[in-house]
Structure formats: C-alpha cells, structure tokens
C-alpha cells in the first residue's frame, strides 16, 4: 500500500467513526505524508478530497467531539488546527495554527534579548462548530474557508499544538515529577506508552513550570511553602529580616519527629552546601536507629553559620524533642560556632568530634611539613596511638612521647598543641570510651546522608519549596525502610541464636545488637578475652561485654541488660502525618474546654472583651515573606581559578584533598613548589 492509499484509509476510518457516533476508539496517527489529493497553488491550496466537507453532514454529540475529529483529519492532511474564538455552549471557531499575523510588542525587535521567530502567515483556513437546538443540542460543522496559503507539513513535530500532552499524560508528568524523576526519563516513559508522542524535553520543562504555577494558586513561593509545611503536619519556624526576606527556615517532617523521639540518644550534625539557588547553608541533623541505620531528624536553612544561627536552629530542634528526650551524645566537626551552640542549648549532652575530619585536618595542615613519606607515615602512626590511649595516664605518657618525637618540627607540634590538645576529651578514647555513643565517633553518617539527599536534589539551583519536596521523598523512603525492618525483625529468629542465653532478647532487640552480643558471647564461651575488663564496650554500646557475660554465670540474659537504643519490641511506627502533633492537639483541646467553661461564668462585659481578643487573634494575618537573598557562598577552597557557576550539587574539594592531589617536588617530596624552586637545593637546578 502506497502513501496515498494509507492516507485515504486513515481518513476514511475517522469518518466511519464519526458516522457511527463512536469516538472512543479514535486512533493516534503518525506524521502525515504528502497527499496527492492536495493541490497547491502559488498563493493558496484547497482540499479537493472533500474529507473536511463531508463533516458538514455529520452530527456531533459535543463540542469536544467536533474539535477532536476536525483536528485529526487536519493532522492526517498535514495541518494543525487551533481554537480562534469560542463561546461555551454556542459556537467554536477553528483555524490553521499558521493563521493570523504577528503582533509586535512594545520592545523593538532590535532591542530584544531573545531572538525569536513566528510561524504566523495569515493562513485563511477557518471552520465553525455550532450547537443546534433544533437538532436536540447536537453540534454541526460549517465551512468558512478550506484554503491554505502554505504547503502541508510532512513532519508535524514542528507544530506546538501537536506536541501537547493529553490529560492522562499530564497526570503522569505530575506524579513522576513528584517522585523526583528527571524530565528526560519522564519523556522516555511517556514515549513507551505512546510511540507517536511528538513532545520534546522542553515541553516537559514547560509543563512542569505550568504545574508549578497552578500549584501556587496566586501565592508567592514562600507563602505556598509555609502553607504546605503547616498543612502537612510539619514542625517549622522562620526568621526574616527587616525587608521581609526569609533568613532562616527550620522544619521537621512528622515522620522524622516520630523517629527522633523514639531514638533521642545520639545525633550527628553538619552543614552541607550547594542545595538551593539562594546558596544558603543547610544544617542536616541525623539520628541513629535500633538497626544502626541513619535517619533525617530535621533540616535548617540558615543565612550564616554563626553561633546565633546555630543557637536558633538547635533551640527549634530542642522543642520538637521535648524535655524527656534530651540527647546523650552529639557528634560534630570542629565548627566552633556549632560547638558553642551545642553547649548552650544541650548543656548535658556530650559533644564528640569526628575523628575522620580531625585526621583530614591534620593531613591538610601537617603533611606539607614532612619531606619524606616514611616520616609522614610514622607521624600518623604516633598520632593514632595517642588518640587510642585507653586511659588518662596512658594518654599523658603518649603525649610526652609525641612532644619529644616532634620537638624539632615546631610548626606541627604547635598546631597539634594549640588546635587539638584542648579538645582531647572530645575525641581521645580515654574519655570517649566512657560515653554511650553506640559506636559513632565520626560524622560519616552525615556525609552519607548529604550524598543521598543530593541524589534526590539532582541540581543545586532549586528553590526552597522544590528542595523541601525532594527532602520529603528521601525522608519517606527512609521511614518506610525502618518501618519494614522493624516489622521484619520482630518475627525473625536467627538459627545460631536459638539457644537459651538469647531466649528473652530475640525478636525484642535489633539484629545489629544481637550480632554484637553474639560476638561477645562467643568470646566469653571460648575464652577469647583480654586479661582485664575496662567496661568500655558496655558503656559505649549498651551491650554486655564478654567479661560481663562470663561473670554473670546465667543461662538466660535478661532483656533489661540491653540499652533501650537497641530495643524493637516497644516501638511501633505509623504513616500518620499528624501523629506527632497529637500531644499538642490534646493540650489545645484541653485549653479550649477550660476557656469555654470559664467564659460561661464571666460577666457580660468581660465576655465581650474576651470575644474581641479571640477574634483579633484568629484574624491575625502573617506578614508577606519574600524569598531569601542570595548568600555569598562559604564553600571550600577551590585550588583553582574562578569557574563558571554550576548547577551541580557536587561539593568542592576540601583542603586535605587539594593537599593529597598536589604535585610534589621530586627532590624533597614537599608540596607548593617544584625542583627548580626547591629550598633544599642551595644552588637551584643549574
């Protein structure tokens, strides 16, 4: 069958469906081919096949049916029809999408930034659809002009109308966008469902922008964000400057609040960057579950990273925890402003420092002062022995040795003495092993959480509302993982633990804790224990050590011997967004009942005053909050020339990474110079 016969067959199928008054099976058509039934002239062409004319004899049930059939016939013939004018339940005027003339705007063409073009050439084609009351409300088509002043298109993808999405496809775009699927993948998915789809990536971006505009419903982006936070069961708070620009935003997802209150013992805190178009630092607070997995506790966008900013953020965090859920340990980097804020807001918590970041800081500041690699390796070994000192007396001895060993390297020794020695209680084992940190001595959890979050964000140029939506996806994923694991471990019993000693703890304690306990039980059973019990393992992990198990001389370990951090029997999580607000709702309802009871007993004048005050409170409107100002990015040392602004969420290299990757002098192995400028060659290179 040649192209002409295919075209004729498709047109006849449309007309047959119209005649049968059944449009539900209307097929989708691929791009049309040149038709021999269209005669072209120098000025205009007219359809001699009379396919559009034949529609004048048909009755259409609705306006939409008439438009759909007319458009499909025009599409097959190589034209696109658009609605010129219409009046509901009366008439609709359809014309060629190349009809009309371009209307110049006030800005002269030569002054416009965007160099655009127009497809409008005043094509005269025009048909009318009218509702006929005499025909029981059916619609009829009337021909005004079937003339076109241009040739039909052989590829309809150039016509914007033909790249439109159906209502079902728009719903898919909305759902997939909410799931964080990139536009190109959305388009690929739509094409699998509709191989004839002509849309391109730009159409997906435009549709997403349209969906966003509709979701705002006339509100500003910040107003919409705050409405969603308040209506979604979030705990949130804001700060804004004198001009009304948002400066701080704290928010905690209801699922995160539930997890934080259930696991309030250990939290890790760190800021991440390149998450939003305003370049605001994002403080990410991470908790630790019974399964030794991480969860997002809350997020804080801040204008700066000063002590007052951190104090404000931690005070908000403290409010969602409550007085009965105060943390035992908070782990952070050596961010002095954050450390001071932790001391102010959580005075009873032990603030430990990340040993990994300490090591990398030492690498960045000390390695350049060692000529030989073997000397640097020896230094790291000595430092490791120092921070692993099991008690204070051994630390004092190790420090004396350290000072003697590196007294000739004054720069390194002064750096260690001035920067890290005053903070030894926050990272040296002699002190940290007496703290219930449950094995957390580094902020690697936070780094992993940052990486996971940025996989959801994909770009660093999103607004706060977009970032919040992506954060919610990550939180909901984490919550479901923890909820499922909790349910699973309550019904699973490992075969190796089917012995009397574990009878009371299996299905009541997480598998992670059971595995740690099993190791200690085996060590006690086979005598693989150190000579003396330090008690550190039990203090750190909340799990009996091998020495304790051996000394207990019991057949069954009691459940209360395990720290509550690892218990799963008393925990039950749900997906109710407003569950975390139940306590507050109960308090408010109680106050309202008290108010009503007391108000009934008041004199008339006092009742009027009370009613007026209550009306003023209810009628209070929030001030208009503007989007944040773009902040100067704190960032990280680039070690390179200024580069073009990027939308990537990938962080810049840290100082220690620059040091590690720096080229070394071939003579002294130092960094920062080469052989020709090496200070250890008295006469240079020549």
Automatic annotation (TrEMBL):
Classification via InterPro entries: AFT, MULE_transposase_dom, Zinc_finger_SWIM
GO process terms (BP): cellular response to iron ion starvation; positive regulation of transcription by RNA polymerase II
Residue stretches making up the MULE transposase domain: 266-361
Segments for region (Disordered): 629-655
Biased composition (Basic residues): 631-644
GO MF entries: DNA-binding transcription factor activity, RNA polymerase II-specific
Coiled coil stretches, renumbered: none
Ranges of compositional bias, category Basic and acidic residues: 645-655
PANTHER family: SWIM-TYPE DOMAIN-CONTAINING PROTEIN
Protein name as it appears in the record: PKS-NRPS hybrid synthetase CHGG_01239-like
UniProt source species: Prunus avium
């Amino acid at each position: 069958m040649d192209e002409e016969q295919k075209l004729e067959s498709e047109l006849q199928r449309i007309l047959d469906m119209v005649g049968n008054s059944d449009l539900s099976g209307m097929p989708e058509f691929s791009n049309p081919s040149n038709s021999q039934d269209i005669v072209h002239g120098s000025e205009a062409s007219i359809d001699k096949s009379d396919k559009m004319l034949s529609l004048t004899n048909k009755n259409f049930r609705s306006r939409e049916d008439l438009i759909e059939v007319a458009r499909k016939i025009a599409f097959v013939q190589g034209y696109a029809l658009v609605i010129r004018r219409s009046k509901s339940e009366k008439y609709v005027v359809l014309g060629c999408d190349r009809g009309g003339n371009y209307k110049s705007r006030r800005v002269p063409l030569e002054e416009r930034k965007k160099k655009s073009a127009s497809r409008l050439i005043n094509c005269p084609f025009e048909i009318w659809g009218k509702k006929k009351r005499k025909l029981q409300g059916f619609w009829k088509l009337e021909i005004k002009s079937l003339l076109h002043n241009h040739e039909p298109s052989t590829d309809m993808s150039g016509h914007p109308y033909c790249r439109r999405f159906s209502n079902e496809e728009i719903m898919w775009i909305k759902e997939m966008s909410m799931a964080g699927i990139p536009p190109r993948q959305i388009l690929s998915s739509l094409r699998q469902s509709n191989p004839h789809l002509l849309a391109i990536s730009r159409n997906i971006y435009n549709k997403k922008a349209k969906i966003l505009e509709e979701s705002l419903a006339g509100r500003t982006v910040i107003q919409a964000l705050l409405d969603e936070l308040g209506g979604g069961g979030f705990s949130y708070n804001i700060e804004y400057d004198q001009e009304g620009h948002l400066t701080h935003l704290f928010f905690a997802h209801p699922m995160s609040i539930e997890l934080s209150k259930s696991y309030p013992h250990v939290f890790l805190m760190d800021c991440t960057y390149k998450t939003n178009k305003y370049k605001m630092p994002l403080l990410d607070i991470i908790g630790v579950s019974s399964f030794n997995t991480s969860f997002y506790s809350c997020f804080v966008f801040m204008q700066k990273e000063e002590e007052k900013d951190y104090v404000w953020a931690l005070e908000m965090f403290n409010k969602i925890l409550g007085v009965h859920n105060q943390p035992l340990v908070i782990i952070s980097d050596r961010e002095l402003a954050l450390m001071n804020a932790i001391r102010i807001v959580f005075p009873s918590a032990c603030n430990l420092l990340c040993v990994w970041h300490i090591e990398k800081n030492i690498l960045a500041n000390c390695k350049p002062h060692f000529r030989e690699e073997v000397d640097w390796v020896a230094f790291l070994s000595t430092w490791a022995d120092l921070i692993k000192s099991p008690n204070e007396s051994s630390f004092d001895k190790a420090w004396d040795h350290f000072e003697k060993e590196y007294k000739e390297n004054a720069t390194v020794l002064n750096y260690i003495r001035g920067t890290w020695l005053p903070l030894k209680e926050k990272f040296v084992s002699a002190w940290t092993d007496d703290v219930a940190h449950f094995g957390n001595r580094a902020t690697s959890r936070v780094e992993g959480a940052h990486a996971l979050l940025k996989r959801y964000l994909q770009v660093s140029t999103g607004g706060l509302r977009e970032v919040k939506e992506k954060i919610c996806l990550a939180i909901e994923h984490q919550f479901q993982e923890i909820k499922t694991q909790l349910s699973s471990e309550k019904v699973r019993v490992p075969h190796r633990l089917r012995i009397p000693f574990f009878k009371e703890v299996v299905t009541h304690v997480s598998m992670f804790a059971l595995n740690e306990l099993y190791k200690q039980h085996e060590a006690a059973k086979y005598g693989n224990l150190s000579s003396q019990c330090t008690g550190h393992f039990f203090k750190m992990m909340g799990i009996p050590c091998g020495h304790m198990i051996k000394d207990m001389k019991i057949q069954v370990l009691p459940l209360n011997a395990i720290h509550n951090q690892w218990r799963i029997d008393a925990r039950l999580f749900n997906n109710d967004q407003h569950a975390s607000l139940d306590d507050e709702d109960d308090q408010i309802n109680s106050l309202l009942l008290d108010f009503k009871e007391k108000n009934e007993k008041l004199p008339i004048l006092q009742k009027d005053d009370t009613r007026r005050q209550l009306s003023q409170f209810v009628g209070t409107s929030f001030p208009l909050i503007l989007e944040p100002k773009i902040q100067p990015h704190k960032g990280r040392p680039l070690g390179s020339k200024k580069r073009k602004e990027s939308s990537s969420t990938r962080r810049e290299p840290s100082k220690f990474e620059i040091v590690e990757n720096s080229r070394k002098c071939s003579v002294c192995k130092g960094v920062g110079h080469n052989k020709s400028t090496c200070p250890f060659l008295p006469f240079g290179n020549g």
